[in-house]
Every structure is written in C-alpha cells, then in structure tokens.
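Pasting as-is:
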Amino acid sequence: MLFNWQTSFWQENFSAKAPAPAIILKGPSGIGKKQFAQTLAQYWLCENFSTQHLPCDICNSCRWVNADEHPDFFPLSPISDDTEEGTESSKAKKKITPSQWIKIAQIREQQSSWLITPQVGRYRVCIIEPAEALQLAAQSALLKILEEPPAWLRFILVSNTNKRLMPTIRSRCRIYALPIPSWDQAMQFITETKQVNTPAWLSYHGGMPLIQQTESTQVSSEFTEIEWCRTFLGSLSDERISTHSIHAEPKQMIAFLQKLTFDVAQLKHTGQVHYLPTMQSLLAPVAQSANANSVWHFWRWLGQQQRLQNHPLNAKIVVRDLLQEARQRLKA
C-alpha cells in the first residue's frame, strides 16, 4: 500500500519505469519505508507490470507477495538468536529477544536462490530491512553479488541511516529519500487509525505517524511517555514522588530522556517545546532553574548511553540509574 504522502513520489520515480538493479530507500523511522518497499516489490513482480502504474492486487503474483509466498520474493530481516533446545513450555516462558543483526549466514542461505532464474515472472526481488543491520561480513558478501548481479535480480535496501552501509554498497545503489508527511497528512492518518491523544502523540514522535505504539497507547487517552514525564518532573520538585512506578526498557528510557532534555534546553533558550508541548507548564520551572551546561552535558551523556541500550544488562537497574542521573543533572 502507498500512503497519501507517497503517491506523487511514486509516480515521479517508479510508475511504469524499469527497475534499477539495486536501490536504497532511506528516511527516518515511521514514514512508511517498509510498506513502500513491499508495494514496490509487488509491483515489479506483478503479472500486469507493463500495463499498470501500481500493483494490480488481483494476479497470482500480487496475492503471493501479500501472503509472503511468492517463489521469487525474498524478504531479509534480523531473526531471533534463540536456538537453544528445550520444551515448548520452557521456551514460552523465556523471553526471546530478536537479533539486532542480519548475519552472513542469512545471505549465504538465500544467495543460491538469488542466482536461479525466476520461476514466475521476469525478476527475483530481495528486500533487506533494515539494511544498516547487515553485519560487516554480510555486507561484504552482498557487495560481491552487487558487483556482478544476474540480469533478473533486484535489491531493495530499506534504511534509517544508510551511512552505516559500506560506501562501495551505496555507490552501487540508486538512492531515494522517501518523502516525510506534513503535519496535516500525519494528523489525518493517525486520527483515522490510532486511538490516542493525537497531537501529543504525534509531537512526541517527531511527526512520524507510523512509529510503533506500546499496548497502553492503544487503550488510553494518554500514552505511556506522558505519564513518565508527569511522574519524573513531579519527583524533581517533591522527593516524596517516586520514579519506581516507571517501567521501561533502557532503549525507551534513553529516547524519552533525550527528548525531555532537548525540550528543556529549547524552552530555556527559545521558549518553545518540540516533543512534549502538553507538558510545557511542568517543563518551564525546570528549564528556568536548570544549568545550561549541565543540561547540554547530560544530553551528550545520553547519546553515549545508546551504546548500552541493547546490552544484556539488568534493565531495571539501568533505567533506575538513568533516572537518578537525570534527577541530578536537571534538578535545581
């Protein structure tokens, strides 16, 4: 499917045009890159490609792509590292964390299929998402194929930060920066699809309407991060308010504190709030009393903590330490 902010971009760059051997679709998270890539792969594999400007959705190829059963379609993403043996009940109790990487073994597993001529149409299409998850060895293996690709093989690399890819890979791909929705387009989309406090939710996520929601945001008028903000800011002025009620993964908490700290700094210097506009009245006294250098150094420190956000440390201890550090840096 295409979203309304992608339609004109599609018509200008892909409609009724022969596909390049390899392309990169880049842009920030939450603008619909994965859905665009899926539509593009479906279009290239569509049996009516030469007569249509979009996938027809009625031919066998279109149906197979939608069902992830097309013999010439190869989606490639990080998979779980959990390969331990055990009973089904023990595996169900164990929390399985997906891998953060696409490994060379996954490239090698699909490589033999890529080199075989298409079974149905004229192309074989591989979507790699997110492309920056490719480990260095996997990138090197992919590069060898990109250097001399078969005439029927097409790659779609979906990336939030394509600079993490090897320069030699980027040089062999046609790069497209996907359009970012306007505020009105994003508001219209989430109003129709999400049961949340719409403007506040969209502001917190930087205007990106397809950011994944937590379960609580689907049933509550206020999403989780607003509740965190109210609790944390309350604890700065009243030590009787505890932050132990805040439950989050380190990655979520680092992102939350980065946005809160950015808003404190921006409010201090410009009088405006970007991510948490509904919390401006609570942020104002913090911005007024906080030391500008302390706020800036804390924001940089949070960037360094991102290196540990996926580390198998005790999440509760990490979050507790992050909140303690935030209180020390932002408290008057």
